[in-house]
Amino acid sequence: MLWTLPAKPIYWPPQRARSAQAAQIANIAARLERLPLTSYQKAIFAIIATAWFFDSMDLGALTFVLGSIKQTFRLSTAEAGLLSSLSFLGMFVGAASAGLLADRFGRAKVFQASMIF
Predict the structure, then answer these.
(1) At residue 91, what are phi and psi to the nearest 5 degrees?
(2) Nearest-5° Cα angle at 113, 111 to 117
(3) Where are the domains of the chain?
């Protein structure tokens, strides 16, 4: 018996089912885009934006004060670079430990604690 390929390719799932799914997803996305933001969503956005601002402020501040720190403590260029790199190491350790704590205690509690400390 000789095997032959079909005349046109067979798609799975069928094209009609896939296009119907895509249309349904597009309808849902369009509906969500038309909905206005609620006051709750705006408040959550403001809280998270403020937290992100203050969280990233330490890195920005270090950029501006590193020259003064280098002069005051008579640091070499390598030592100043190491000091700057330690900021990223602290972020790495903090993110890794916060992830583990969030798995154990919940994201909301860990996020709130990280904003206090």
Answers:
(1) -65, -40
(2) 120
(3) 39-116
- Give one DSSP letter per residue of 30-68, joined into a string: HHHHHSPPPHHHHHHHHHHHHHHHHHHHHHHHHHHHHHH
Tokens of 110: 């860990």
3-state secondary structure of 1: coil
Q: Is the peptide bond before 13 cis (omega within 30 degrees of 0)?
A: yes
Q: Give the HSE-up count for residue 39: Cα atoms under 13 Å, Cβ half-sphere.
A: 0
Tens-digit pLDDT profile for residues 33-87? 888 889 999 999 998 899 889 878 878 888 899 999 999 999 999 999 999 899 8
Distance between CA atoms of residues 76 and 12, nearest Å: 64
- What is the separation, in whole angstroms, between the first and last Cα of the chain? 75
